[in-house]
């Protein structure tokens, strides 16, 4: 089987296959002929990228063909499109190079290659996920509204989020951190125009895990989170290394996003970095400074920082009180924080509007051994006057199709998504949230050091 190929100027495709530049004659590439294909590749590499691959009418009757560049066998009808995909448009190449130069900053312990970043922007592929018509958040909103008719609950949700679940033989057992980053990214790309322009080189889509690993390596090379970079020796691509909250923050910060970290734990863990991946509680971990940060959470943070030494809880109105130590009191500090995060701009409930879609991004939610994504929170007023809170969570270990089925039928979704205070039994937790806006160059330098806010459980 012989395929004739040629490169033509930007003009309608010519049915007569020939090479029109530099006096090069027709090239015949025999399927399976590696030497001939390599020779063809070397000769074709001299051609400008704006030229295009086309096929002669002699091949039109063939059912399948072999790409002369990557040797992939595919239907003849798809060969021209596939071959052209090997060549980037000159304008796009220039744009990718410009983006690469924009993100290139002097590194601290590793070396960043501008060409590598440029290639990454053009070559990255979309992460696979099960698409839910209308979106899971919309289905969940419907279920919460039906529930609110009977228990007068109030729920706050983030906007659109695609659910990325771990796949057998791909990332089961280690990929939860990457999947949560994908979930957060899907929200940011859908709701924040400024994030869409910078995330993943402006690609407009969520990359698969392999390319997220590449982006994290580049973040380290540029000087973000030196302790994390040292822990992994700047290398995660192609591995099954587990990551945590600081890796999530490093990746997003490297694009100029204001990712913040919050620690919850016992007093003795205040100066410890919880999410060094692979570590277990009780092992030596990297020290972390506790600092104040600017942003929409200052109102709640400042109120709490003076209360860390005692056991306190706060309601949604901002009132805090000393309480005797209770079974779930420590976890209540975390839940209070989440409630204040989603309702920070004030919560107004009128008429039948008992489910509110906030402009808040989801939260990366880490504890020892696993991480999930918090997409909202629900509160119910009980008969005894107390308020019962439920975190609303998407878990990468749950199958998306199971979530969709349970929400569409309004059966069993509570067990998959709701998590009450009584379920929060781990001694330490960590969150990552993303404030709006893009950091300036000066701020970007500050973001390279990942500090956290600490709350005692």
Describe this structure in words.
- This is UFSP1/2/DUB catalytic domain-containing protein.
- It comes from Hibiscus sabdariffa (roselle).
- Residues 306-327 are annotated as: Disordered.
- This protein has 457 residues and is an alpha+beta fold.
- The protein folds into three domains: 2-87, no CATH class; 91-123; 136-456, Cathepsin B, Chain A (Alpha-Beta Complex).
- Helix content is 34%, strand content 19%.
- The protein has helices at 34-44, 76-84, 90-103, 114-123, 136-151, 176-191, 193-198, 209-221, 226-232, 245-253, 298-305, 329-342, 400-409, 413-417, 441-447; strands at 2-8, 27-30, 52-55, 64-66, 73-75, 154-157, 257-265, 312-314, 320-322, 355-357, 363-367, 370-381, 387-394, 418-420, 429-438, 452-456.
- The strands form four sheets. Strands 6, 7, 10, 11, 12, 13, 14, 15 and 16 form a nine-stranded mixed sheet that branches. The chain has a three-stranded antiparallel sheet with strand order 2-1-3. A two-stranded antiparallel ribbon has the order 4-5.
- The longest helix is centred in the N-terminal third of the chain and has 16 residues, at 136-151.
Tags for this entry?
single chain, 457 residues, alpha+beta, Cathepsin B, Chain A, nine-stranded mixed β-sheet, three-stranded antiparallel β-sheet, 15 helices, 16 strands, globular, disordered N terminus, hydrolase, UFSP1/2_DUB_cat, UFSP1/2/DUB catalytic domain-containing protein
């Amino acid at each position: 089987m012989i395929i004739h190929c040629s490169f033509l100027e930007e003009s309608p495709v010519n049915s007569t296959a020939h090479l029109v530049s530099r006096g090069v004659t027709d090239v015949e590439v025999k399927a399976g002929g590696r030497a001939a294909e390599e020779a063809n590749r070397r000769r074709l590499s001299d051609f400008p990228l704006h030229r295009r691959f086309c096929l002669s009418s002699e091949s039109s009757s063939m059912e399948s063909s072999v790409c002369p560049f990557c040797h992939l066998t595919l239907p003849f009808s798809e060969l021209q499109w596939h071959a052209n995909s090997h060549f980037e448009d000159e304008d796009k190449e220039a744009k990718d190079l410009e983006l690469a130069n924009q993100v290139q900053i002097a590194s601290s312990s590793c070396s960043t290659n501008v060409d590598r970043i440029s290639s990454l922007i053009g070559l990255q592929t979309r992460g696979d996920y099960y698409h839910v018509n209308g979106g899971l958040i919309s289905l969940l909103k419907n279920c919460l509204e039906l529930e609110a008719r009977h228990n007068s609950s109030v729920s706050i949700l983030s906007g659109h989020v695609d659910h990325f679940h771990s796949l057998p033989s791909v990332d089961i057992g280690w990929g939860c951190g990457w999947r949560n980053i994908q979930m957060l990214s899907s929200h940011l790309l859908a709701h924040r125009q400024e994030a869409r322009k910078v995330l993943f080189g402006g690609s407009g889509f969520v990359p698969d895990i392999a390319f997220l690993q590449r982006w994290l390596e580049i973040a380290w090379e540029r000087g973000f989170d030196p302790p994390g970079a040292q822990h992994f020796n700047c290398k995660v691509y192609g591995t099954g290394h587990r990551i945590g909250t600081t890796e999530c923050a490093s990746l997003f910060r490297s694009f100029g996003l204001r990712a913040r970290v919050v620690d919850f734990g016992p007093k003795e863990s205040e100066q410890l970095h919880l999410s060094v991946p692979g570590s277990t509680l009780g092992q030596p971990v990297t020290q972390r400074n506790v600092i104040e940060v600017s942003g929409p959470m200052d109102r709640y943070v400042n109120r709490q920082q003076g209360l860390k030494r005692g056991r306190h809880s706060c309601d949604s109105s901002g009132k805090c009180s000393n309480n005797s130590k209770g079974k779930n009191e420590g976890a209540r500090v975390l839940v209070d924080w989440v409630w204040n995060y989603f309702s920070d701009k004030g919560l107004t409930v009128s008429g039948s509007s008992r489910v509110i879609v906030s402009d808040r991004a989801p939260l990366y939610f880490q504890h020892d051994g696993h991480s999930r994504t918090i997409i909202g929170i629900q509160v119910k007023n009980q008969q005894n006057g107390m308020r019962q809170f439920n975190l609303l969570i998407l878990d990468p270990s749950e199958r998306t199709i199971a979530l969709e089925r349970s929400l569409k039928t309004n059966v069993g979704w509570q067990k998959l998504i709701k998590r009450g205070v009584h379920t929060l039994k781990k001694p330490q937790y960590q969150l990552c949230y993303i404030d709006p806006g893009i950091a300036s160059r000066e701020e970007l330098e500050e973001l390279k050091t990942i500090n956290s806010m600490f709350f005692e459980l």
